[in-house]
């Protein structure tokens, strides 16, 4: 049951309960219809296999497409592993390659259809705090995104919509008082870098807190930096979800991806780029890796 910004209460069929994240009462969520079908990765796997007597592997992929990276090819292996775990995937051989049947694309479509039935909507938690608390929070919140995008016609002045309108007004005033935005005539505008400043502030504060419990120094991850360390756990912040990457002397926080869930406790490595990190995973270790 969802109290919407349109002032109405909505009853949503979320499919399998264990396929959606746990949502604390009072949290703010975003719900969108899911549309699942065979992916480009499925078609690429099929193309590589048809050119290699029905087999697929990272090495075969790289020979088939010299422009592909190892990390990109590895993402296709994760797709096959997900299908195999669901009982829809092909067989993996002892050498790590896969036997891809001729009806692979039909199987991939059937797998997607099953996912659609189990998860008819995509439910995302955008804040675990009551909306009124976000008005004065020193972090990049979804209220800031709303203020940047504008166009609040769908937010009705009733029910939860009224709470959101009040929070937006309070947030606007809080941001102006801290010199992060200006009122230019009737227009409200964030100053350049204001959102990133809020995001980095929250990240540093979270890093300091986590550092106390780990007994290690927090290091801010930089664009273009190669990250390597043990994927310790997930941390949910207002500006998004992050993974703790623990190293021998310090740790860092990087944007969370669902693929990390299956690799907790393992060593992960990748380069931070604007489009994200293409992860490569190593063996599980009893302690953090050296850097």
Structure, explained:
The structure is a single chain. This protein is of the alpha+beta class and about 290 residues long. It has three domains: about 1-30 and about 120-190, no CATH class; about 40-120, Arc Repressor Mutant, subunit A, CATH 1.10.10; about 200-285, no CATH class. It has eight helices and 15 strands. The chain has helices spanning about 40-50, 60-65, 70-85, 105-120, 130-135, 140-150, 160-175, 195-215, and strands at about 1-5, 10, 30-35, 55, 90, 100, 120-125, 180-185, 185-190, 215-220, 225-235, 240-245, 250-255, 265-270, 280-285. It has a six-stranded mixed sheet with strand order 10-13-12-11-14-15. The longest helix is centred in the last third of the chain and has 21 residues, at about 195-215. The protein is globular. The termini are far apart. The model is unreliable at about 285-290 (pLDDT under 50).
């Amino acid at each position: 049951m969802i109290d919407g910004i349109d002032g109405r209460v909505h009853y949503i069929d979320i499919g399998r309960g264990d396929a959606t994240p746990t949502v604390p009462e009072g949290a703010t969520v975003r719900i969108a219809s899911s549309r699942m079908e065979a992916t480009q990765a499925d078609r690429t796997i099929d193309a590589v296999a048809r050119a290699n007597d029905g087999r697929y592997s990272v090495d075969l992929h790289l020979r088939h497409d010299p422009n592909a990276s190892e990390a990109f090819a590895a993402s296709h292996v994760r797709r096959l592993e997900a299908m195999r775990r669901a009982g829809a995937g092909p067989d993996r051989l002892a050498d790590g390659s896969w036997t891809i049947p001729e009806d692979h694309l039909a199987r991939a479509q059937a797998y997607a259809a099953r996912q659609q039935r189990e998860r008819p909507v995509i439910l995302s938690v955008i804040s675990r705090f009551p909306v009124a608390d976000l008005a004065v929070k020193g972090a990049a919140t979804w209220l800031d995104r709303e203020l940047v995008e504008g166009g609040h016609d769908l937010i009705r002045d009733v029910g939860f919509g009224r709470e959101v309108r009040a929070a937006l007004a309070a947030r606007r005033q809080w941001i102006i008082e801290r010199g992060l935005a200006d009122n230019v005539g009737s227009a409200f505008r964030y100053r350049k870098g204001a959102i990133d400043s809020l995001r980095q502030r929250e990240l540093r504060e979270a890093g300091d807190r986590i550092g106390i419990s780990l007994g290690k120094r927090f290091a801010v991850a930089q664009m273009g930096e190669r990250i390597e360390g043990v994927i310790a756990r997930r941390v949910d912040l207002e500006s998004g979800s992050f993974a703790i990457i623990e190293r021998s002397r310090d740790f860092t926080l990087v944007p969370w991806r669902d693929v990390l869930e299956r690799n907790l406790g393992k060593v992960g490595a990748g380069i931070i780029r604007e489009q994200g990190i293409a992860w490569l995973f190593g063996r599980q270790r009893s302690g953090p890796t050296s850097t």
